[in-house]
């Protein structure tokens, strides 16, 4: 689990990122979760945009993505989800204690 201080740090790091995935009408599926998992391994921190035509509730989408990719949900703001997962190979972010 992330502490409040760590989440604040990750939110500040994610601020300038653009969403690289979009959840649309189809909702969350296995293929998307696998791709997000791979992207998290490469980047550690990413944003996912939830489109207006998504039939799932944004909180359900955020939970499904974080559970499926085994990532921490840093933030859900508007229709944007920020996810973090420590990388095994490409560790770049050093979290505050």
TrEMBL record:
Which InterPro entries does this one have?
A: RNA-binding_CRM, RNA-binding_domain, RNA-binding_YhbY, YhbY-like_sf
Identify the residues that the record assigns to the CRM domain, covering every copy: 1-96
Instruction: List UniProt keywords, sorted A-Z.
Output: RNA-binding
Q: What GO MF terms are annotated?
A: RNA binding
Sorted alphabetically, which PROSITE patterns does this protein's record hold? CRM
- A UniProt-annotated Pfam family: CRS1_YhbY
Q: Does the keyword RNA-binding apply?
A: yes
Q: Which PANTHER family match?
A: RNA-BINDING PROTEIN YHBY
> Would you tell me the protein name for this molecule?
RNA-binding protein
Which organism's genome codes for this protein? Rossellomorea marisflavi
